[in-house]
Amino acid sequence: MKDALALPQSLLVLGGTSEIGLATARRLITRGARTVWLAGRPSPALEQAAESLRVLGADTRTVDFDALDPASHETVLGKVFAEEAIDLVLLAFGVLGDQAHDERAPLRAVHVAQTNYTGAVSAGLVAASALQAQGHGSLVVLSATAAERARRVDFIYGSSKAGLDSFAQGLGDALYGTGVRVMVVRPGFVRTRATADRPREPFATTPAAVATAIELGLRRGAETVWVPGVLRLVTAALRHAPRALFRRLPF
User: Which residues partner with 170 through β-bridges?
Assistant: First the structure.
């Protein structure tokens, strides 16, 4: 069994075009990772992402993966684990949705929920089972501070992340002592292409900062990582704010 706190030599990114996922892969490559699998829907963007990691010296491969096709997850991820042991699985896929539109279009809201929660539950369980079968590894799950308490401006997205966050914590408890660990990462507002047209929120962060926090969390053996760290205190206060007050806050 490998040292649980050692940085990974191989990783699988579920959500192969995720800016946070790619930033994390780049950082881990500079720390010694040699094999990277990018799992996502076939696209030029996925191939470009893979090539951007190859030039850093990593053996980078792509695999077709669709979060909305849970029936395929066991087969798809099984092929990856059959090739080699995977030290780290990063669950980085997800969609923000558009709250204003999704409230009036239930099927769009369902798409957010199915991607961020249902697809993640399926992929997370399959990955955890494979990691457990090999006897070691880490599953890093990208949650969000929005999971802590539903906000008027993004309660559809927030509720899907709340479900994911709760699932990941429970899975971590279920895997305790098996040689496999789960780390939940809760970033605040992350400045990416997907959020470029949205108003910047307090304590905004970047994919590179999240990647740094993930590395430090892996080194510490952390179960939960907040990015930036001050959000642990901020969300603790907001979590207990009276509802009448909370709904008046300007966000």
Answer: none
Query: Does residue 199 sit within a domain?
Result: yes
Of 37, 81, 93, 157, the active-site residue reads 157
Q: What is the pTM of this model?
A: 0.93
Nearest Cα neighbor of 122 from 71, 47, 160 is 71
Residue type, 148: E
Through-space distance between the first and last CA atoms of the chain, rounded to whole angstroms: 46
- 157 has catalytic annotation: yes
Question: What is the separation of C-alpha 85 from the centre of its chain, rounded to a whole number of angstroms?
Answer: 20
How far from 16 is each of 31, 49, 53, 150, 197, CA to CA, in Å? 19, 7, 11, 28, 22
For 204, the token pair is 């905004």
How far is the C-alpha of 49 from the C-alpha of 20, rounded, in Å? Answer: 12
Q: Cis (ω within 30 of 0) for the bond into 207?
A: no
**Which domain does 171 fall in, by range?**
10-247
d(CA 80, CA 72): 13
Strands (E) across the chain are located at: 10-14, 35-40, 59-64, 88-91, 137-142, 180-187, 224-227
Indicate whether 61 belongs to any domain.
yes
Residue pLDDT, tens place only, 77-135: 999 999 999 999 999 999 999 999 999 999 999 999 999 999 999 999 999 999 999 99
Beta carbons within 10 angstroms of residue 173's beta carbon: 11
Q: What is the per-residue pLDDT across 13-26, written as a single tens digit (0 to 9) for each?
A: 999 999 999 999 99
Q: Which of 89, 17, 95, 25 is nearest to 53 (CA)?
A: 25
CATH number of the domain to which 121 belongs: 3.40.50.720
